[in-house]
Amino acid sequence: MTTEAGTRTGRLRQLTEEYRTLADRLREGGGRERADRMRSQGKLPPRERVMSLLDSGSPWVEIGLLVAWDRYDGQAPAAGVITGVGVVAGREVVVVANDATVKAGAWWPETIGKMLRAQEIAMRQRIPIIYLVDSAGVNLPYQGGVFPGQYGAARLFYYNVLMRRYLRVPQIAAVMGSCVAGGAYLPALSDVIFMVEGTSFMGLGGPHLVAGAIGQKVDAKTLGGAVTHTTISGVAHYRAADDAQCLERIREYLGLLPFPTAPTPGAPGRPGGKPAGHLYDVLPHDHRMSYDMREILACVLDGGEFLEFQPDLAQEMLCGHGRVEGQPVAVLANQRGLVKGKPGERPRTGGILYPDSAEKSAYFIETATRERIPILFIQDVSGFMVGTEAEHSGIIRAGARFVEAMAAATVPKLVLTVNHASGAGYYAMAGQGFDPDFLLSWPSGRMGVMEGESAVMAVHGREIERARQEGRPQDSGTREAIEQMRADYDRDLDATHAAARGHVDLIVTPEETRPFLSFLLRVTSRNPGSHLGPFVLPA
Hints:
Elements: H1 4-27, H2 32-40, H3 46-53, E1 60-63, E2 81-88, E3 91-98, H4 109-125, E4 129-135, H5 154-167, E5 171-180, H6 185-188, E6 192-196, E7 201-203, H7 207-214, H8 220-224, H9 226-231, E8 238-240, H10 243-256, H11 293-300, E9 307-309, E10 317-324, E11 327-334, E12 338-339, E13 348-349, E14 352-353, H12 355-370, E15 375-381, E16 383-384, H13 388-392, H14 395-408, E17 413-422, H15 423-428, E18 438-441, E19 446-448, H16 452-469, H17 476-493, H18 495-500, E20 506-507, H19 510-524
Parallel strand pairs: 3-4, 4-5, 5-6, 5-7, 6-8, 11-15, 14-16, 15-17, 17-18, 17-19, 18-20
Antiparallel strand pairs: 1-2, 2-3, 9-10, 10-11, 12-13
Helix pairs in contact: 4-5, 12-14, 16-17
């Protein structure tokens, strides 16, 4: 494409198509052959189990699809577990489903992280969690990253107990294949256990381990099959003839539970002010170039209507109110490009936070918290302003006020990264370390301490300046180091790199942005109490 519009839109379109290709491949799990093998054993493949469980046509937001995609030589797609938020029997739930097509559903270190994240979502939003268990247990070559540690596998069972004893979050477990060793405590610490005749097994040790440990020979069905645990041990509570019946009985069970208090209905939903496809025309091809953040808001918010707070002050930070499919939301978004400063002041660089924009944001967040309005942070931030003028104006104190107000907010916080998420500005805009409810990124998102060119100047700036002053080219070693640093930063800043490490919950396409935000706002409204931290125990 050679037109100006084509030049502007190429980057986001290209990255979106690359993401879709990667996501489709990861959803195949261990491949069609292994899925067919499960069918031949009378089982449903893992993604078919999830889709059969969910209400037909209802939203499904998968969390952590890209986790570990670039590790283990590609042998751990989605870290061997499917996690997400969907709707079952008319109510929002979290689903955790082992993918037995990937190393028999064994737990990698990243598998634990994904399952813990899923549990934390259920705990914070006070919505049921359903475990579809089919796992060979710990992936033994990587047990050092699974078994020990504060956030190792034991944390799963700790969260089980917190949900049972204090948070009253329903936990439903269906053993639909193997469930061995310590992994058996996941269903055992749930409220109810379903098992499937002929295909499910649950035990602290399988037949081979029992034979080796105590010399007893016993088959799997007798040792820990569905009949054994529903008629002899009493460990399980319900028995199903096959996977389809098991999933249907879970739906029936969930439908009998009391429904939590419904959230206050919002205004009738309206379409965005501009179609989602317009978002491809907003971001420039070069991530460093400017654009108007209001064009993004026009697509995301109902009718494109944005009631801006202090519109003529600190215009590099947009604060205001809008709705997403009828649901009210307070928005903080970074404006890019040059923006007008105060009278007599030089223009400001958009995407940078100044002392008064930090103060403005802090006040707006505190007001939204008092008004109990969820907050949406749309990130395209390069950091806080530096230099004599900024330091003398108290940028450190103002930045601390911004961070404190955001961290102390007890209302739901959602994050959408559309471009840069850099430096302390990323922290202030509800970075992952401050436990926002959900973190989304476009494929164009870039997350890191700083951009590659800034890193080059921080590390090699002195040599670059010396060569310039001496009128000579940089030496070959410096040139190679600079090019390698640029390449490393481009790779490490990429949204798929962040998603592979769980730094964002999911990558969304421009078309998915509004419906996903709307559904997740609805999910967060199920807990009218505090959303401070991954969970808050009752007094």
